[in-house]
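The material for today's practical consists of a large collection of protein records. There is nothing in a record beyond a sequence line and a structure line. Backbone structure tokens are a discrete shorthand for how the chain folds in space. Nothing more is needed to start thinking about how sequence determines fold. As an example, a complete record with its sequence and its structure tokens follows.
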Amino acid sequence: MDIKKVRLEDISKTERPTLGDEVPVEVFRLLRIIGMYSILGEGSGYTLYLAGKELGVEFDVNTVEELAKLLKKLKIGILTVVESSDDRIVVRVDECITCAGLPDIGKMICHFEGGIIAGALEKILKRPTKGVQTRSHTSGFDHCEFHIHLL
């Protein structure tokens, strides 16, 4: 049996006349934080990063400004470039869908978002990237920060 891949443009097509096309952040977090971790354990972070990176490369964006608009529209977070050089871009994400408002648990958990940003920047800049999260609500900060290394 040949299984077709769900394409990015298919994701936005919903047939939910009563419930609509949005879900509460709590539902996303249940799936993302609790569901994925219970299935994949400690390896969930890297898996989510890779999934996010694959998704980010598929986004229809050609500039950082377009990426920021899309992330805000999708309610993933509010992206701001903090620093940019030939080998690294530092971005801040406010109101992150995964961690905003969560307590300090001593670790970073926004692997999916980091992957999305790294993948989209890889497409925009036409250079391989590697994203590393350096700040998060769950590590005692009031925002997320990602260092996107340009390889």
Observations:
- The radius of gyration is 16 Å.
- Residues 8 and 58 are 7 Å apart (CA to CA).
